[in-house]
Amino acid sequence: MNPVSPVSPVDEEAARLYRAGLWGGAARKLWDTSVDGAVGPRLRELADWAEAASHGDAPVDTYGNGLVEELERRVAEELGFPAAVFFPTGTMAQQVALRCWSGRTGSPVVALHPLAHPEVHENGAFGAVSGLRTVHPTDAPRLPTAEEVRDHPEPFGTLMLELPLRDAGFVLPSWEELTGVVEAARERDAVVHFDGARLWECPTHFGRGLAEIAGLADSVYVSFYKSLGGQSGAALAGPEDVMEEARIWRHRYGGMLFQQYPAALAALRGLDVELPRLPSYTAHARVVADAVREAFADAGIGWSRVHPETPHTHQFQVWLPYSPDTLTAASVAATEATGTALFRRWFSPGAGGPPGVAATELTVTAPGLAWTAQDVKEAVRDFLSRIEG
C-alpha cells in the first residue's frame, strides 16, 4: 500500500485560504496587503479614487497608451529618468533590462546576491529564458561591499543590487556603502541595475530622495503592488534608447497586453496615496520593532531576534527558536481568539539562520499607525501564551 500524506494539497490550500481570510479580515492588524478583502469592495474603492482623481472619464487604454503612458511618465519623473516602460510583471521587466544591458556590454554575466529575487523566486529564468549567467560577489546576508565587487575574480557586465534585500531581512547598506559599491562596479566598466521592487521605501534610511537614489544606477525596476498597494505590474526606468529597446522585448516576451487600465489606475493611486505615507510607516516600524524586542525580554524568552535591530524600511523580520508550524498555529490561535493580527505566517529562514529557528516578516502600513508600543507588547504576550510544546 502506498503511504498517504498526512496533509493533502487540497487541505494545504484550504488552510492557506483560511489563514489569509482570518488575518486579512482581523479587526486590528499592522498592515493591509494587496490580497486582503473581496472583489466588490476593492473595485468600488478603486473606482471612487479614480473619480476623485479625475480619471473616471479617461478612455481605457489599448496596447499601452492612455493611462499606461501617464503612469510611465509619472514613474520616470519620480525616479529622475528620461523614460519608463510599464510591464505586467517584475520578472519580465528585469529579464528585459538585463538582456538589453547584456547586448550593450557584450557580457551575459550578471553579478548579484544569491538571495536576490531572480536567484530564489524565478525558477532560473535568467539562464533558461534570456541566456544570462549569474555570479555572486558575496553570500553574506547583506549586499556586497565595494571591495567584494572590485575584487570578484570573474568578469561581469552588469551589477544588480536589490534594494532592500528582502530575503536577508529587508536590509540596506549605508549611503556611503552604496555609492562605494556603484563606484567599484564602474571601475570594472560594469553597468549598474537596481532591483528596486521596494525602492519606494528607501528614502528614509538613506536620507536622500528617490531620484538621487535611483540616479546612482543605469536602470531601475520598481513594483506597484509590494509597497504601493497596487493590483499588479511594474516599471523599468532608464535611458531613452534602452527603454525603446525594452518596449520591443516586452512585446517579444508577451507583455504587450491589450488593456491594463485597472492595474495602471491602482498604481497611480499608490503613487498618490501610499508613497507619501511610506516615511511614516518606516518610522512607526521602528516603534513596533522596539516593542517586540522589549516584550520578548520581559517574557524571559531565552533567545529571539528582531532583524534588522532598527528596521531599514517599514518591513523587518522576527526570529524565534520554534518550528514554523508551531508559531504559525499560535498566530492563527491569537487572531481567532482576539481579532488581532500581529504575527502571521512563520517560515524557515534557510541559509541565513541557524537550525531550529523560524522567522516571520512584520510590515507596518496605515492600520499599524494606530498601534502604540503597549498595544504591541500586549499582542506579543498573548501570542507567546499560545505557543504549544
Widest beta sheet: strand line-up? 2-8-7-6-5-3-4
Major beta-sheet overview: 7 strands, mixed
Please provide the ordered H/E string of secondary-structure elements.
HEHHEHEHHEHEHEHHEEHHHEEHEEH
Q: What percent of residues are in strands?
A: 5-15%
> Whole-number radius of gyration?
22 Å
**How many helical elements?**
15
Describe the global form: globular
Low-confidence stretches: 1-5
Query: How far apart are the first and last residues' alpha carbons, in Å?
Result: 33 Å
* Structural classification: alpha/beta
Oligomeric composition of the shown chains: single chain
Q: Calculate the mean pLDDT score and round it.
A: 94
Helical residue percent band: 40-55%
Instruction: Give the tally of β-strands.
Output: 12
Keywords:
389 residues, alpha/beta, 7-stranded mixed sheet, 3-stranded antiparallel sheet, 44% helix, globular, disordered N terminus
Map the helices and strands.
Blueprint: H1 9-24, E1 28-29, H2 39-52, H3 67-79, E2 83-87, H4 90-105, E3 109-111, H5 117-120, H6 125-130, E4 133-135, H7 146-151, E5 158-162, H8 175-187, E6 191-196, H9 203-206, H10 210-214, E7 219-223, E8 234-238, H11 240-252, H12 261-274, H13 278-298, E9 305-307, E10 315-320, H14 324-338, E11 340-341, E12 358-363, H15 373-385
Parallel strand pairs: 1-11, 3-4, 3-5, 5-6, 6-7
Antiparallel strand pairs: 2-8, 7-8, 9-10, 10-12
